[in-house]
Amino acid sequence: MSRTWTLCAAVLAAVLIAGGCQTNKKTSEKNGPAARTEPVSILNQISANDEGFKTPGGVAILTRAELEEAKSTELTKLDVDFNKQSLVVVATGEEPTAGYWVKITGVQRRGTELYVQGVANRPGKDQQAAAGKTYPVAAVVVPRLEMVTQVIEEIDSVEGQAIPTTAPAAPEAATTAPAPTDAK
User: Fold this and answer.
1) Each residue of 47-65: pLDDT tens digit?
2) DSSP collapsed to 3 states, the chain
């Protein structure tokens, strides 16, 4: 009787181990080399009010024609060589007053997806803000990107903060941010 239980336990253990190996194989295929995030260097950046971006979201602009199609009033101030560089843009959309802003702090790439980290501010409850609609937008110049299918924003929200002033980064002093989490 003891031998039967030992044999059953051994078979059960073998099945569980084999099943676990299959699961690990599928997981490693899903999260393998193609699923790794790679930091993207930020060469220059701007935070502005731009009526060309009236709806919230993120976008990668890969060509001068795409920039012109956006009808941006501010992003054209960035000197972008689209043969060597691209733009990554995050907009909060139309806001009711001044005091809103957005800033990109990092960009990561995973396959054809871009993960954009940043901070978005809204005026504090007791803070006076000028009346009038605004269109907060942030953009970064990055090395040329090929085939971006999706821009995923990972933006933290703050309230009542002054817009950070950052001098444009020199290409030698490009910055990167930590990889995004896999909570998708």
Assistant:
1) 999 999 999 999 999 999 9
2) CHHHHHHHHHHHHHHHHHHHHHHHHHHHHHCCHHHCCEECCECEEEEEECCCCCCCEEEEECCHHHHHHCCCCCHHHCCCCCCCEEEEEEECCCEEECCCEEEEEEEEEECCEEEEEEEEEECCCCCCCCEEEECEEEEEEEECCCCCCEEEEEEEEEECCCCCCCCCCCHHHCECCCCCCCCC
